[in-house]
Amino acid sequence: MIRDEALGLFRKITSLHTEPVLLVAADGQVLAANPAAVRLLPGVEDDSSLSDLVSESADDVGRFVRQWLRTGHPTPAGLTLHGYNGVRLRCRCFGARAQWLPAPTVHLRAVRIDPGDRFLTLKDRVNALERERILRFRATEDRAALNTALSAVRTRLDHLHTLVVALAAAATPEAVTKLVAEHVPPVLGCARADLHLADATPVNAGLRIPVPPHATLALTTDAQPPAEHLESVTALIGGALERF
After folding, report:
1. How far apart are the two ends of the chain, measured CA to CA in Å?
2. What is the pTM of this model?
3. Which helix (H) or strand (E) holds 226?
4. What is the homologous superfamily of the domain 4-119 according to CATH?
5. Across the strands, what pairs with 106?
6. How far apart are CA 59 and CA 123, in angstroms?
7. Angle at which helices 173-188 and 118-169 pack, to 10 degrees?
8. Which CATH number fits domain 144-241: 2.40.50.100, 3.20.20.70, 3.30.450.40, 3.90.480.10?
9. Sign of CA dihedral 60, 62, 63, 64
10. What pLDDT digit, counting tens, does each position of 85-111 carry?
């Protein structure tokens, strides 16, 4: 814990600075601010976090703070401070570990920069490249997810086609029950499928679906298949049974 006298000494030393100077804890909390920072940044004295005072993300701010804590020499980073009346202040912020304090603390000085500053231009280019990289990565992930979904659809259609062909060749209701047990599980993604005719003894199953005109489809499954899949399968089975 930083003592009040240490914070008071910081304010006294930095009171004549014309540029904003902050003391920032390792978690990003602003511990103290000089008068220039108070005049420039609304809310800086209200136990605010550094990420609340800038436009950059909390992840970026946290990365900068960790970087500054590792060095005793002022290291620059570009931040956009939030001034009064919605004004955005592009600044080059020089941060370093405050070695005169026992707790991990950053001594941070903000210097306003003009749009032609080479450091700012380079930072913006790096940020733009990083955003493009993230967008490309997400697009790649989206394509991979789409390809996986399309592959699953093609596989299900193949299984469904096999079921249609098999049911069309069935010669008896008993043959239909055997074909259902063999071909319906891969279509619906269930562990087991049993077709019970009107005179059959049902087995225990987690899900039972009526199959007109006189049968029941019993499924052993952890999750209920989509309704449209069940509808298409029961329609095929019912159509096969109506022939007998």
Report:
1. 86
2. 0.48
3. none
4. PAS domain (3.30.450.20)
5. 24, 97
6. 16
7. 180
8. 3.30.450.40
9. positive
10. 888 888 889 999 988 888 899 999 998
